[in-house]
Write a structure and sequence with these properties.
7 helices, binds MU-OXO-diiron, mainly beta, 507 residues, binds calcium ion, 6-stranded mixed β-sheet, 5-stranded antiparallel β-sheet, single chain
Length: 507
């Protein structure tokens, strides 16, 4: 806030409901208050309910991209409700010039004027919403200490719910090898060969879910506020996948081998034999975490999918050739993948309290999984689970799972994670708006960004770096290669159950 006055800032931001902000972490300027906290290299924020984006002293932010910002001369615009961010420099010799990917997860009904409860959209209004989701590829550059978009770059483009995307599967899905669009894009990952993985999470809100009973396929309704059913012909089976995107060309493909569910993330690591291993959480109460081991280096098109039994520390194969029960239940591997959740239940996967993001500690190799919360288990605050693979190998079929830290003391509802290069964990919280939970969450203020050292006497304690505007969650934390900037999305500021008359923020 030091560069421009607060008044100028508010004028600039007034109509921006969502943005990818950039935190410039300036170690030379931080306030080392050792008496307050000997282990955090800054004075942490206290919980706040202020209608503002607050940063601990020593940090500052710049606006990088905002909703409906023009990306190119084809009229494509930056989308809504940002989540996952990846940044890939063109070359390792110049980390300050590269391509950014930003997920656009979902829309809000107030995009459409005249909305009120019970409002029915026209097809034209649904088409507007289909343009808001998916993701953006944006060429960015750092000049004179500040990141900004390269205007009119040939790389700037959108993928949305109209973009045709090939489906990589053994068999066509509903007779199709191409899906129309990507949506519900939540978190993601980056492959070792420099493509981005964007995860289709709550697709059912838009296109419903297909249910087969006695051989008859019916579509269960989507979300009352978000559903496009009646205006689109988008089969649910074409969504819920991990989508691989080449940022230089915009080419995308749906990787069905990684399974179909509410994919939160797709966190990659390399095995010693050069194959890529991907961890993914299924963000729904009492769903599971999965591991995918690619069949060969340099590709995720084929491989083996496993689901976690965290009680016995085993990865259970979702493979019809290895399990008679799966062979009986599904007539092909493609059918099994479409119904990944059902297959996971058959083999005895452990139900978890909303598994969201997963990150791998660059120092120890341990795998950290956020379990956001659970209504079913009366666990409002969530926790972070730590998985140590046997022999520290991502190819291992055995692991040890333990509780790293529980919510309820320093924070509530852990969601997105990122490690810095020293092995400190950075975490965003997601106390999604729920009137019944406000009493439990009130003392934590608005959602925030936290710093969690993994070593030292405060290992596992969380120190607040940023506080979001009310109704928002901070998402998609992504360090620039020099670790001086953290790119961050501010998703759904003001959201209170999709009702525009109850917007909670004017930030
Ligand atoms: Fe899109 Fe699970 O948060
Ligand atoms: Ca999330
Ligand atoms: Ca979330």
């Amino acid at each position: 806030m030091s560069e421009i006055s607060r008044r100028q800032f508010l004028e600039f931001m007034g109509r921006s409901a969502t943005l990818a902000g950039a935190f410039n972490f300036l170690p030379g300027c931080v306030n080392l208050d050792k008496s307050a906290n000997p282990s955090a290299p800054f004075t942490p924020l206290k919980p706040s309910q202020k209608d503002d984006l607050l940063l601990a002293k020593g940090f500052k932010y710049n606006l990088l991209l905002k909703w409906r910002q023009k990306l190119n001369n084809q009229g494509e615009l930056f989308g809504y409700n940002n989540d996952f961010i990846a940044y890939l420099p063109f070359s390792s010799t110049n980390p300050y010039d590269g391509l950014m990917w930003v997920n656009h997860e979902y829309t809000d009904p107030w995009l459409n004027s005249g909305w009120k409860p019970g409002f029915t959209r026209t097809k034209a209004q649904v088409d507007i919403e289909r343009k808001e989701v998916g993701g953006s590829i944006v060429h960015i550059r750092k000049n004179e200490g500040r990141w900004s978009m390269v205007k009119d770059s040939k790389f700037n483009r959108r993928l949305d719910a109209f973009t045709p995307i090939p489906i990589i599967s053994e068999q066509p899905i509903l007779g199709k090898k191409i899906a129309i669009g990507t949506l519900g894009n939540c978190a993601g990952g980056v492959t070792p060969w420099g493509t981005v993985l964007t995860c289709e999470e709550n697709y059912q809100n838009f296109v419903g879910e297909a249910v087969v009973s006695n051989g008859k396929r019916t579509i269960q309704d989507g979300d009352q506020y978000l559903s496009w059913i009646g205006h689109v012909d988008l089969p649910p089976e074409h969504y819920g996948w991990v989508v691989e995107v080449d940022l230089k060309t915009g080419r995308a493909q749906k990787l069905t081998a990684l399974g179909r569910f509410s994919h939160e993330c797709a966190t990659t690591t390399l095995a010693t034999d050069g194959r890529c291993v991907v961890y993914s959480g299924d963000d729904s109460d009492q769903e599971h975490i999965y591991k995918f081991i690619a069949a060969k280096p340099g590709s995720l098109e084929k491989g083996s999918l496993y689901v976690a039994d965290t009680i016995n520390g085993r990865w259970l194969p979702l493979d019809r050739q290895k399990d008679q029960r799966l062979k009986q239940a599904f007539n092909s591997h493609t059918q099994l993948l479409i119904s990944t959740r059902a297959a996971a239940k058959i083999v005895g996967a452990t139900p978890l309290d909303r598994p969201e993001d997963i990150e791998i500690d660059p120092i120890s190799g341990a795998v950290f999984v956020t379990l956001t919360n659970s209504r079913k288990n009366n666990n409002p605050y969530g926790s972070i689970m730590k998985i140590v693979e046997k022999d520290n190998s991502p190819l291992s079929m055995e692991f040890q799972a333990s509780n790293f830290v529980s919510g309820g003391q320093d924070f509530a509802c852990p969601d997105n994670l990122v490690f810095d290069r020293k092995g400190n964990l950075w975490m965003c919280t997601d106390m999604s708006y729920n009137p019944a939970m406000q009493e439990q969450y009130g003392r934590f203020g608005n959602n925030g960004l936290f710093y969690i050292p993994l070593s030292g006497k405060n290992a596992g304690r969380a120190f607040q770096v940023a506080s979001s505007p009310p109704g928002a969650e901070l998402t998609g934390p992504c360090f620039a290669p020099d670790y001086k900037t953290l790119f961050l999305s501010v998703q759904h500021p003001g959201e209170r159950g999709h009702d525009p008359s109850r917007i909670a923020s004017h930030w």
